[in-house]
């Protein structure tokens, strides 16, 4: 393996690690956001029905985002 190939592999490996760190950070952020939405939905019963529906939609979108990020993370680990 020549120097250029070695360097290319090192850069690729570093980029994968960087992406994994970023994805884990995003997953943690989304998990915290989900927890906040769930707490608001469960504890704030005096919210209007429209607001509760909006919170539920935001929770659903956050859950979908987390699912997509997890799938992306799994694909990275398979490479």
Overview of the structural elements:
- There is one protein chain.
- The chain has 79 residues and is mostly helical.
- It has one domain (18-78): Helix Hairpins (Orthogonal Bundle), CATH 1.10.287.
- The chain has two helices and no strands.
- The chain has helices spanning 3-43, 49-78.
- The chain is rod-shaped.
- The mean pLDDT is 86.
Question: Could you name the key traits of this structure?
Answer:
single chain, 79 residues, mainly alpha, Helix Hairpins, 2 helices, rod-shaped
Radius of gyration of CA atoms, rounded to a whole number: 19 Å
In oligomeric terms, what are we looking at? single chain
Topology order in helix (H) and strand (E) letters: HH
The total of helices stands at 2
- Low-confidence sequence ranges: none
> What's the CATH architecture?
Orthogonal Bundle
Q: For the residues shown, what is the average pLDDT?
A: 86
Strand percentage lies at under 5%
Shape: rod-shaped
Distance between the termini: 20 Å
Structural class: mainly alpha
> What does the largest sheet look like?
none
What is the name of the CATH class? Mainly Alpha
Percent of residues in helices comes to: over 70%
CATH topology: Helix Hairpins
Write the layout of secondary structure elements.
Blueprint: H1 3-43, H2 49-78
Helix pairs in contact: 1-2
Short description:
This protein is 90% helix and 0% strand. It has two helices and no strands. Helix 1 packs antiparallel against helix 2.
